[in-house]
Amino acid sequence: MNKKIVLATNNANKLREVSAILAPLGIDVISQREAGANCDPEENGTTFAENAMIKAKAVYEAVGMPVIADDSGLCVDALDGRPGVYSARYAPKGMECAKLLDEMKDVPENKRHAEFRCVIAYVDGNSEFTFEGVCRGVIGFREQGENGFGYDPIFVYDGRTMAEMTDDEKNKISHRSMALKKLCDHFKVE
Ligand code: ITT
């Protein structure tokens, strides 16, 4: 794999996490803005893979160098997988945890399982691939922790929310790191 890669995202938190995961492998992650792409394509797919591909292709068209995109979200068992691909649009930014906690206020502790899913799409003009990562946990009963973003304050993994973890701790177990590991395994990046 090319050691310089553009990340197709407007989400600064994803950029920080992906850069930190790939930097130790010698892969230099550039933001789409740094690469000169000002893209925000409509994510009208019905799956994480479709939406990840839409974003990767739009940025590849603009920059002409290898691109990865991340489409991700939270799938809650008790809500039949919602909010899923609509996670970013489920509530106004900063309100997503409160809304989900309210929707789940009557769901008992043993029925609060959920998973974060992430699909990384890779496009370089010759080939395109998608890689999926999953991280299972449970939805807590209140927001805890200050780190991370999105649903991290209510997603409990091994007794702590992702917002209570350092970036390094989250990056060891996250859906994003699992998907990126598959990408690296595919390209045999050491
Ligand atoms: P881009 O499309 O520009 O990459 P986005 O934030 O809109 O940025 P998505 O469409 O993939 O990205 O939506 C993902 C949403 O799912 C994100 O906004 C969060 O609400 C949630 N999410 C995904 N990964 C998460 C994580 O690691 N921790 C907490 N919430 C996460």
Description:
The chain is of the alpha/beta class and 190 residues long. The protein has a single domain (3-189), classed as Alpha-Beta Complex (Maf protein). It has five helices and seven strands, in the order E-H-E-H-E-H-E-E-E-E-H-H. A seven-stranded mixed beta sheet has the order 2-1-3-4-5-6-7, sandwiched between helices. Strand 6 (155-157) and strand 7 (160-161) form a beta hairpin. The longest helix has 16 residues, at 48-63. The protein is globular. The chain binds inosine 5'-triphosphate. Inosine 5'-triphosphate binds at residues 9-11, 14, 43, 55, 70-74, 87-88, 96, 116, 148-152, 162, 174, 176.
Shape verdict: globular
**In order across it, which strands form the biggest sheet?**
2-1-3-4-5-6-7
Q: Tally the beta strands.
A: 7
Share of helix, binned: 25-40%
Order of helices and strands: EHEHEHEEEEHH
CATH architecture verdict? Alpha-Beta Complex
Low-pLDDT segments: none
Secondary structure tally, helices: 5
Percent range for β-strand residues: 15-25%
CATH-derived topology: Maf protein
Radius of gyration: 16 Å
Structure summarized in a few sentences:
38% of the residues are buried.
